[in-house]
Amino acid sequence: MVFNNTDWVWQVQEDILEPEREIVDPHHHLWPSEDMGYQVPDLLADLTSGHNVVQTVFMECGAAYRKDGPDHLKPIGETVFVTDSAAQMKAKGGPYIAALVAHADLRLPLAQLDEVLDGHVDASNGLFRGIRHAGSRDASGATLRIPGHAPPRLYAEPDFRRGVQHLGERGFTYDTWHYHHQNQDYLDLAKACPDTTMILDHFGTPIGVGPYEGKRDEIFEAWKDEMAAIAECPNVHAKIGGLAMPDNGFGWDKRDIPPTSDEVVEQHEHWYDHMIKCF
């Protein structure tokens, strides 16, 4: 799979709307590896391509973990990598990484979880804001480009809920992504952890491939009621993006050229409108 296909993306270029508007990109990744590399020069090229992006928030993606030491502390390597990347960007005087969300296994005993959280704090030079421990799991047999690997019913596990609650007690946020058929479990989690600020990523990832292909309207009808219910939880916020991933099933990744903004609006508008209305 090609994650950094710049040549393909740049086949479609359009005029920037409101180029003066300051933007904070709340969700992006960095990868140091050769096969799916996306590092500071790549990020800066995108951030300075026309829109006035002034700051960003890095979101954990399993990159640059420590290769040795206790397993529960290995995610701190990603925070070290991102903090160094943030310093490189800040030194250039343009857009920069202003915060990061890291990973920890929230099922850990609290003493070990605190060890991880403290490690992220110490390594982040003030950038650390919270944890993403994704709940995504699909047992339909669909061949997913970015499959989730969470255990069944992670959101309902007592140890996991205790960890999410502990984030709130320490003043940290909880990010997650999951699939559309897990929205009810997420709602139950949000109600069980009312003192933790929770951020839902990727619209709850409505799947559009495999057995879900051709069921977009049916999925939307159930999804919109679930989003409305989730939005009633005062501790939940939503980042409205990530609806054009291959697993959403719009098929743009299979084309020779990427979609235009008009094509994206045609397919996405009612999803965005509903999220904005709810949240």
From TrEMBL:
Keywords linked to the UniProt accession: Hydrolase
Presence of the UniProt keyword Ribosomal protein in the record: no
GO MF entries: hydrolase activity
Pfam families: Amidohydro_2 (PF04909)
Domain called Amidohydrolase-related: residue spans: 24-260
Family membership noted in the UniProt record: Belongs to the metallo-dependent hydrolases superfamily.
Record's protein name: Amidohydrolase
Species whose genome carries this gene: Hyphomonas adhaerens
